[in-house]
Amino acid sequence: MLFRFRYLLLCFFVASAAMVFAQQSYVDEAAEMIESSLNSTEILIRVCTVLLILFTVFFIGFFITLMIARSTHRYDEQYEKNIKEKFELLLTGVIFNDDAEMQTDEWKASRKRVVKHFKKRYLHKRINKKYLREHIILLHKNFIGSAADVLRNLYIELKLDRQAIKELNSPDWGIQANAVKELAQLNITKATEKIKNRTQHENQILRLEAQVASIRLDKKDPFSFLDKNRNYLTEWHQVNLAHIIDQINRDLLPDFSRWFVSPNPTVVEFCIKMTLQYDQFASIPALSQLLYHKNQHVVGEAAKALGEFGVTEAQSDMLYVYRDAITPVKLQLLKAIGKCGNNEILPFLIQQLLQNDINIAMEAANSLKKLGEEGIAILEKQTLSNLYGVGDICKHVLDERI
Amino acid sequence: MARILIIEDEDLVRKALEFRLKKDGHQVTPCMDGRQGILTLETQTFDLIITDLMLPYNNGLEVVNRSKEIHKETPVIVLSNIGLEHVVMDAFNLGADDYMTKPFSPNELSVRVKRLIK
Amino acid sequence: MTVHHFIEYLNAAIFFYAITVSLSYVVLAVLSARALHIYLRKNKFIDHNVTLTSPYAPSVSLIAPAYNEERTIVENIRSLLSIHYNAFEVIIVNDGSKDATMQTMIDAYNLEKVDFFVNAQIKCKTIKGVYKSTNKAYKKLVIVDKENGGKADALNAGINISQYDLITCIDVDCIIEQDAILKMVKPFMEEREHVIATGGVIRIANSCDIEDGRLLTARVPDSIIPRFQVIEYLRAFLLGRMAWSKLNGLLLISGALGFFDKKIVIACGGYNHNTVGEDMELVVRMRCYMSDHKRKYKVVYIPDPLCWTEAPGDTKILGRQRNRWMRGTMETLWMHKKLFFNPKYGLLGMLSYPFWMFFEWLAPIIEFLGLLYFIFLVIMGYSNWYFFLILFATVYFFAITISILSLVFEEYSYRQYNKHRDILKLVATLMLEPLIYHPRTVWWGLKGNFDKFKGKQAWGDMTRAGFQKKVIKS
Fold first, then answer.
1. Does any CB of chain B come closer than 8 Å to the CB of residue A37?
2. Phi/psi class of residue A258: alpha, beta or left (left: φ > 0; alpha: ψ in -120 to 50)?
3. How many CA atoms lie within 13 A of C87 on its CB side?
4. What mean pLDDT do residues B33-60 have?
5. Strand (E) positions, B1-118?
6. Chain A stretch 211-240, residues whose beta carbon is closer than 8 A to a beta carbon of chain B
7. pLDDT interval class at A21 (50, 70, 90)
């Protein structure tokens, strides 16, 4: 393609040069042509004039927008900063005197004053309410213990929760999601049912917020949304759920093996991770079964969990599924074997170390090292190996500094 | 009453720490980033250091490392939003004396500070 | 063919070309506005702290090639190590520097050579040694010393050394925002199967307040050349790439900061040594690879300003850079010529590729020819100056309207330059741009074409003033 263009260009240059040289003979014809195209030029001029006016108007319009936007932004920012500084002063005074011995009558009186002050001075303005809500959430996110409790009580006392609950009915997913987030953060359980209705919402963000809220707020069956979850649980989604699960009371955690039979493989993956995270040893037999799951990601995840749990009995199952596994899962299986295997597995690992795939050899070497003395002895012996890479891999693995 | 160095880049947390520790009667020196923190602990002596891990310029691990190089006996509390085992282990291996994860209870922190200063 | 016909056709062709360019800008602007709006709305709900603290966050290898950087390397490494992420390693590849870069690093970070096994999955020059720090506080740092082979080669060496599945390739002298990795990893966490690369916005750091590899305050550059580039970058990133990413037709992820799925990079052979546009070439090749294997894929772009770079401050260096960019574009287009209007590659072949070809490669040529044509008409006695002026004014106002629109986008989204005066400065700059700056870029583009056809290969020294000059005391 490029080639042809190159020649075309060349031809074009030659042609135009020739024409300039030959202009004498063509000059009349050209003049005639220009004359005749004048009409079309007239039309073009008109079109251009219209466009010119249009663009000029647009340009000036954008410029004015820009200046106005900048002024309002600056005003808003200044206002937000000022008001939040005031809020912070008022709030820190109350929340950080959170020792029991500090909660004297004087403190209680000052707290009452703060509430009154807020109501009288600030909360009649809508925007102030918004900023106060934001600020309380921010503080609540950063502190736990009695400081957080004081914040929550203040939030309820100022009746800010009512507005959030009202916002759950908004047609806009953004406003809904924000309200859900706020209620979850502050542990306001009044609207839990309503929130749970949104755990399968088509909007991904609202769905996630509602699920997070369900975990935080619902004390009866916080994980029921997993039962009917048809949607793909993305890694991002899983990380967020795991983050919130980490914050709730361990006694409320369900037996995650309940969802090992879920038709949604991402749900199974997630539940394997949670089983491991919260040491649910009772699920180990079910986990071993998952090595034969039809989804390879699930197999990898199950192997990882079994390895971390140190389930030596699972090594024969792992060997069995190893042969047909895809490479990333093979690596996960090898890693798991390194953690849960015993000396019976050494010949297999040596065999994997000596085959062609470097990534697999590397993982096998790592596992040999993890298996302790005998594995390390094998590695040390293999550092002298003539096979491509094997010696260097063993040296690499044995180097404690890497 | 003790001299405490706080190295924390988040305004809110730093102010809260300052407020709380001053209330407890300590003398507090706040720093916003790792480099300022290291400079301060090189030039002054403190009875306790509280540091975040994710800091601008020099990260928290470097702060712990440097602090332990200069004053081995000055206790260091790491206050971080990362609670992962290997991160906590890294901090302890470098000599940190205590580790707290965010969100934290100012109350609990105050108790730990008292314990370490003794 | 008579002159009459010829001129008629040429008129029509030029007219058609101009209309297509303008319309495509309008379409891109509309798409971009929508995409930006959606992105910002969703972004409000994203708490990157969750990724930061999660044990399930994917691990990332950061790869930065260094060549003759002894003055700044220690600071640059330090700022890379303080990036906000949990599971990552920093790989600095010393690409056979002629100065004391290697020794400086060894001294500053107590490095020690280790028995590193290099898994040479892609080709690169000989690796002389891999170093790790004896200080546990620098556990995440890996230094690679290799023979000189150019940027692409150094990146390939880094890829061979890296131990994680996701890689970030960066320029070591760029200033990376601390949450850059957190933001760039998110698309991978949302669609691990499909996302093959993520790119971020590059901004211009000239005249900004910078301290030890960290940006404190963004400022509009003092001198005019970088200021023109600010406008250019804003337009390209906020207007162009946002829209292309929305269409999933993005062809270029800047070499200054790119995030890739290592599996795919290795499968298609890593960076190409034979082009000066290795960043664009890699993305195009990865796209081809995915299409060839009939796999669904996505190249994502994040409009947040993640990386600040020092732009060339004078026309000579800028000219060399643009010359190189043009050659890079041409080489990439040539290497993947099979894409040209090839329906097999879908949008990539039918839209992205032709767009780049006509509006990136050929634009300077066509503009130059237009100028020649105009001169020709003047010689021929054509003197409808009124028409010419109106046409010129229309084009001019169209150009500045598009530019100011990108400023409006910036105002609506990130507002990096936050003084009132900054806006006035930028508006003045963008009004001058089509008159002063644009003709030069056309010229450099032409020269790039010329050099390419003559067979020039070299990179051309990119002399940087270095950030050291701007160090301010706290």
1. no
2. alpha
3. 20
4. 91
5. 3-7, 27-31, 48-51, 76-80, 98-101
6. none
7. very low
In which band, very low, low, confident or very high, does the pLDDT at A98 lie, cut at 50, 70 and 90? low
**pLDDT at residue B85 is higher than 90:** no
Reduced to 3 states (helix: H, G, I; strand: E, B; else coil), residue A319 is helix
* Structure confidence by residue, pLDDT tens digits, C232-252: 999 999 888 999 999 999 999
| CB-based contact A276:A304 (threshold 8 Å) | yes
Residues 6 or more apart in contact with residue A158 via CB below 8 angstroms: A115, A118, A119, A123, A132
Give the H/E segment covering residue A293: none
For the cut 60, the answer to whether the pLDDT of residue B68 exceeds it is yes
- Cβ atoms of C353 and A18 closer than 8 Å: no
Question: Hey, are the CB atoms on B23 and A97 less than 8 Å from each other?
Answer: yes
Q: Is a pLDDT exceeding 90 seen at residue C110?
A: yes
The pLDDT of residue C300 is above 70: yes
Residue C36 amino acid letter? L
Question: Which member of C112, C189, C404 has the closest CB to residue A59?
Answer: C404
Distance of CA A182 to the CA centre of its chain: 19
Q: How far is A245 from chain B (nearest CA, A)?
A: 14
Structure tokens at A188: 């306001």
| Nearest-angstrom CA–CA distance, A241 and A365 | 35
* Residue type for position C156: N
Select from A144, A185, A244, A277 the residue whose CB has the most chain B CBs within 10 Å, as the one to mutate to test that interface.
Answer: A144
Give C172's contacts (C-beta < 8 A, 6+ positions apart).
C64, C65, C66, C69, C73, C76, C77, C80, C92
ipTM of model: 0.89
Residue A30, min C-alpha distance to chain C (Å) = 6
State the Cα–Cα distance between residues A185 and A134, nearest whole angstrom: 11
Q: How far apart are CA A79 and CA A199, in angstroms?
A: 36
Q: How far is CA C52 from CA B93, C30, C55, C85, C138, in A?
A: 21, 34, 9, 6, 19
B76 vs C: CB within 8 A? no
Identify whether B103 is preceded by a cis peptide bond (ω within 30 of 0): yes
A297 touching C (Cβ < 8 Å): no
Nearest to A402 among C53, C114, C404 (CB): C114
| A359 has a chain C CB within 8 A of its CB | yes
Contacts of C84 in chain B (CB under 8 A): 54
pLDDT grade, residue C386 (50/70/90)?
confident
For B57: left if phi > 0, alpha if psi spans -120 to 50, otherwise beta; the answer is left
Find the helix or strand (DSSP H, E) in which C302 lies.
strand C298-309
CA distances to A107, A349, C293, C331, C361 from C347, rounded to whole Å, are 67, 47, 16, 21, 19
Confidence of residue C466 (pLDDT cuts 50, 70, 90): very low
Query: What's the Rg (C-alpha) of chain C?
Result: 23
Over residues C323-334, the mean pLDDT reads 93
